[in-house]
UniProtKB/TrEMBL annotation:
Membrane spanning stretches: none
A single MF term (Gene Ontology): phosphopantetheine binding
Keyword list, A-Z: Phosphopantetheine, Phosphoprotein
Listed SUPFAM superfamilies: Acetyl-CoA synthetase-like, ACP-like, NAD(P)-binding Rossmann-fold domains
Residues of the Carrier domain: 555-631
Superkingdom of origin: Eukaryota
Protein's UniProt keywords contain Phosphoprotein: yes
Protein name: Peptide synthetase
Length: 1057
């Protein structure tokens, strides 16, 4: 083999070098779920992982492996199974450094399959994440000498302490014939078999940017490697995931992000992730792309990507054609033994289904005898450095992956994948199954003349059974009553993805016997064609209707529970010992295929249930509640209104601890618990508290363990005049969350704080306008815990809750009367559950305020609700108004378009924004701090203020300031109608280059601006907010002025567009 480089650095050494040169460069973005972990659209914090953090994580894990398992001998395998997260690449690199070869084992393998793999590799050491303790226990019982270790959590690994890495351990260079990592086959042809991937195949991949392409053409793999942030939805025990980790994110330093671990990669979750982290490209299995297209708005969100990559299985043409209309669709293919087969980007995007091979890799299309069909063969070319497969197979001169392709009818260089030469069925999710052994097992039953497994390009395998003539008259159910044990026996010998479920079996007709060769064997392709209609019906199944529940026939709840238990148990049989009625199915390893199987099993029992209902109710008890209504002999059709959902959550979290009985002395000094101090508002709140001489202490409770460092940086960025706030004598930083018992603090810390604090300012809240109310439950329970803390505090702490105008935005819809021109939201809290905006964020703020109101009414605490509207940039302090918010994005886009909207619609043209530094002053003045008198802990009613600007500014005036500012720089912006501005924004290609998106950032939040336009079309009274009481209480509010031109100019200068 030729070589592109004489020295190829081992991955850990490569990481160390990059970390030394650019320690703060971002390697990847890691999704950390905030709030309710079972939500299908969770709030996610995307944490940057730098190269220095990666380097320390590798060193930490290498030392941990040696401590837990002892040092390896250089060739010894260590098995690894875990949820899909960034521990995978760390383990692979750390294992090499500690003298091991990592063996990545699929979590879906059967016990028998895993035992076979361990035996084949002589592997006696197994590392796993906490979620797979049960699986490992089963292996340990069958393998007494198996040494196991549970790997630390992601946060622990990537927060490894600063320190020098030991560059002396492990090899510096990677040899071409040295094992890099061990994967395994799918087990579709029997038991899975280990596949040893050599260093040479990774070297070729890492250096593949140098692979030449014909003049005027480009390589597909280069666009994957060179793109900006990429979302990978593939598992890291799969070869495609390994390629993304090492060929892209490591050796070519292409930033990567993934989905939250421990949950299935559903279309809802992926769209949620795309909205939040905004990658430039993404790689998917085909089945997920089809799900995304079927969700309203899914295609549009894909269109915001520069490119959509897929591979591993065919994609329906209708789906691919839709995607190519909004972005670049890129088809890839390969195998575990070869990595990808390098192909060229098509000249015509309409040819997305076809492959055109790069001539550098020696691919030949060998005719099969069937017109236009060829088998792919890779022929060795001595000295060719790009033939990676021969590093894994050094002793062969050609490699056959047994893949068949159909030639394009008019473009002979293009080839479309059509299947496997060896009968392997490729499912839509990329899983593979060889049906022969399964079919032969079932044909062993005396009633079965023939069996054929189907399922190419479908989500799961199906089965057509040909009865013996004596049983040909039987119905399907009567036939299966006798034959089903044989199918179950075949299932027991098959991996989960290859198993056939009872709802996926059809009977052949005596009028259409299977097509057979003269020797009696079934001709697969001809029989599939003969039964094309029956196969179609098999996969169409019971149609999903618009409802999330329903039932044909009548069941009482006990009967319904039995049916659901049987359905779930039939699908999740492998985790039967852990399958309680409360067990979360996804925490037990359920995936999208099994969700569909549960739905089909319920359908077979007469219960119509959408797959989404299973995702949203992932336990037997939750499904019983969702599909039933608690009444015997009544069809389950109940619908719960949003108002009822809010009422239920308020009721759930208003069972408070009793109030402390100790007498409370008047307070002239204050200790404040500030929950959420590191954001823009939190930073200014902390500053105002420190400036108040009546405040003796501020406890800053944040969820991140580096909050103190972040706070120092925030104060510096905003010029707040306290150089090292982390060392300020009044401040104490604590790591915890209000959702946890004792806020996640030690009992001593909690008790000490509870004896000292007399004011709580609750400022931390996830901002996501697409999430449901349920997804905010973790922070809502935090409000209840704050009430319990305050009620039990020695100084009867007063609670200030930072709410939102979203909690009352439905006010006009429920309070307007004919003839009203203006509706004023009063400075008081109302318990009406119809007032919040129709989205989970506003509903959650209302629920939290209601919990606080109930606590005040019961005399447990004093409370203040602070209803905050749009916060603007600073009025006096430094600090840039976040350039990614809607107004800065509008300004930047307007400058690039040369146009600015003259109006945002009647409901948005009255600007009552408050600068963020002024808002912090207002909020602290609304709280009973520094009043030199006893805190009134039990007012008759909940205090409530609208944190709005009493002085109204017109959008037209601000727009004029923007025009004048840029005119002075030689950039003319003409004033146009909002619809014209939106039309220009819509015309910008959704598949723009990153440079173009940076120029027109409004493209990324076009939906938001469309929403503003829709608000403008709604007729009704103008919404205003009372501020008289607030202005009397707060001198900062009374002194607010309208947002005149000088403030807008300040922000324009700071943005520097």
């Amino acid at each position: 083999m030729g070589s592109l480089a004489s020295d190829f650095l081992a991955p850990a050494v490569f990481v160390e070098q990059v970390a030394a040169e650019t320690p703060d460069k971002v390697w990847a973005k890691y999704p950390e779920v905030i709030g309710k972990s079972d939500s299908i659209r969770p709030e996610i914090a995307w944490r940057d992982i730098t190269w220095s953090q990666l380097s320390r994580a590798v060193e930490f894990t290498a030392r941990w492996l040696e401590q837990e398992l002892g040092p390896g001998n250089g060739e010894e395998p260590v098995a690894y199974t875990a949820v899909n997260d960034f521990r995978y690449p760390v383990v692979v690199m750390a294992a090499l450094k500690a003298g091991y070869k990592s063996f990545l084992i699929s979590p879906r393998n059967s016990l028998e399959g895993n035992l076979s793999l361990l035996n084949a590799t002589q592997c006696v050491k197994f590392v796993h994440s906490a979620e797979f303790q049960g699986m490992v226990n089963g292996l340990a019982q069958a393998t007494p000498n198996l040494q196991t270790a549970q790997i630390p959590e992601v946060a622990d690994i990537f927060s490894a302490a600063e320190g020098t890495t030991d560059q002396g351990r492990g090899s510096k260079y990677l040899k071409d014939q040295e094992t890099f990592v061990i994967l395994h086959s799918s087990g579709s042809t029997g038991l899975p078999k280990p596949i040893y991937l050599k260093g040479g195949i990774f070297r070729v991949g890492a250096e593949s940017l140098s692979m030449p392409a014909p003049e005027g053409r480009t390589n597909v793999h280069i666009s994957i490697i060179r793109s900006e942030l990429l979302l990978c939805t593939l598992p890291f025990f799969h070869v495609y995931g390994i390629m993304m980790l090492f060929n892209r994110s490591l050796y070519n330093q292409g930033p990567l992000t993934i989905l939250p671990s421990g949950r299935p990669p559903t279309a809802d979750l992926i769209l949620h992730a795309l909205e939040q982290v905004q990658p430039r490209s993404a790689v998917f299995p085909p089945s997920i792309l089809e799900d995304i297209i079927n969700i309203p708005g899914g295609l549009e969100k894909l269109g915001k990507l520069d490119a959509v990559y897929y591979g591993g299985a065919p994609l329906a043409k209708a789906i691919g054609d839709k995607i190519t209309r909004v972005t670049q669709l890129v088809n890839t293919i390969g195998s575990t033994e070869t990595f990808n087969f390098p192909n060229l980007n098509p000249v015509d995007p309409a040819d997305w289904e076809y492959f055109e091979w790069n001539p550098q890799v020696g691919i030949e299309m060998e005719p099969t005898g069937e017109e236009g069909v060829a088998e792919l063969v890779i022929k060795r070319q001595p000295g060719n450095p790009f033939q990676s497969v021969f590093h894994n197979f050094p002793d062969v001169d050609e490699y056959r992956p047994h893949d068949l392709y159909q030639q394009h009818p008019t473009k002979p260089a293009l080839w479309k994948y059509i299947g496997r030469a060896d009968d392997i069925i490729v499912l839509r999710n990329g899983e593979k199954t060889n049906p022969v052994s399964f079919e032969k097992a079932v044909e062993g039953h005396p009633w079965v003349k023939g069996a054929i497994v189907v399922g190419t390009a479908q989500l799961q395998a199906g089965l057509i059974l040909e009865p013996q003539p004596e049983q040909a008259h039987l119905t399907l159910e009567a036939f299966l009553k006798e034959v089903w044990p044989a199918v179950e026996a075949a299932n027991a010998e098959s991996p989960a993805h290859a198993q056939v479920w009872r709802t996926m079996v059809a009977l052949a007709s005596p009028e259409k016997p299977f097509e057979r060769a003269p020797k009696g064997s079934i001709i697969r392709k001809a029989t599939n064609t003969l039964y094309e209609d029956e196969i179609k019906v098999l996969y169409e199944g019971p149609a999903e209707t618009g409802g999330s529940q329903g039932k044909t026939g009548l069941l009482n709840n006990n009967q319904l529970r039995t049916v659901i238990q049987q359905a779930v148990q039939s699908v999740m049989a492998g985790r039967a010992s852990e399958l309680t009625d409360d067990a979360n199915l996804f925490k037990l390893g359920a995936d999208s295929l099994q969700v569909m199987q549960i739905r089909q099993a319920l359908s077979a029992a007469g219960i119509n249930c959408l797959t989404r209902a299973v995702y949203e109710n992932p336990s037997i008890n939750m499904l019983v509640r969702a599909l039933g209504n608690g009444a015997d002999n009544v069809a389950p059709t109940i619908t719960i209104s949003r108002e009822e959902k809010m009422s239920a959550m308020i009721h759930k979290y208003t069972k408070f601890a009793p109030r402390a009985t100790e007498s409370v002395k008047p307070d002239s000094t204050f200790a404040v618990l500030l929950v959420g101090s590191t954001g823009a508002l939190g930073t200014h709140l902390l500053y105002e508290l420190l400036q108040n001489p009546a405040v003796e202490r501020v406890y800053c409770l944040n969820r991140s363990d580096n909050a103190a460092e972040r706070q120092v940086q925030a104060f510096s960025d905003r010029g707040l005049g306290i150089p090292d706030v982390a060392s300020h004598p009044k401040v104490r930083f604590l790591t915890g969350e209000t959702r946890h018992e004792n806020f996640g603090l030690s009992p001593t810390e909690y008790a000490d704080m509870q004896s000292d604090v007399n004011t709580i300012l609750l400022n931390a809240w996830p901002v996501n306008f697409n999430s449901t109310l349920d997804s905010f439950e973790d922070v809502i329970v935090g409000v209840k815990r704050c009430v319990d803390f305050a009620a039990g505090s020695a100084r009867q702490a007063h609670i200030g809750f930072v709410s939102s105008v979203a909690s009352v935005l439905n006010f006009p819809a429920v309070r307007s009367r004919e003839g009203d021109e203006v509706l004023v939201v009063p400075e008081e809290f109302e318990a009406d559950n119809s007032l919040p905006a129709r989205q989970g964020y506003g509903e959650s703020k209302h629920v939290a305020s209601s919990i606080l109101a109930k606590a005040v009414k019961e005399g447990l605490v004093g409370g203040t609700v602070l209803r905050v509207g749009q916060l603007a940039g600073t009025a006096e302090a430094k600090g840039v108004w976040n350039r990614h918010e809607w107004l800065p994005s509008l300004i930047k886009t307007s400058k690039s378009l040369g146009k600015i909207p003259r109006s945002l619609g009647p409901s948005n043209d009255n600007i009552i924004w408050v600068p963020v530094d002024t808002a912090a002053k207002v909020i602290t003045e609304f709280l009973p701090i520094g009043t030199q008198k006893e805190v009134d802990s039990t007012p008759a009613s909940l205090n409530c203020f609208n944190v709005m600007n009493p002085q109204v500014t017109q959008w037209a005036d601000l727009a004029k300031t923007v025009q004048d500012f840029y005119a002075e720089q030689g950039n003319e912006l003409i004033s146009v109608e909002f619809e014209e501005w939106l039309s220009d924004l819509r015309s910008i290609d959704a598949a723009q280059t990153p440079e173009q998106v940076a120029k027109f950032p409004g493209v990324k939040i076009l939906d938001f601006y469309e929403g503003l336009r829709l608000e403008a079309d709604i007729e009704g009274p103008e919404l205003a907010f009372a501020t008289k009481k607030g202005s009397a209480r707060s001198s900062a509010m009374a002194g607010l002025r309208s947002l005149e031109g000088d403030l807008m100019r300040k922000w324009l200068v700071e943005w520097d567009f």
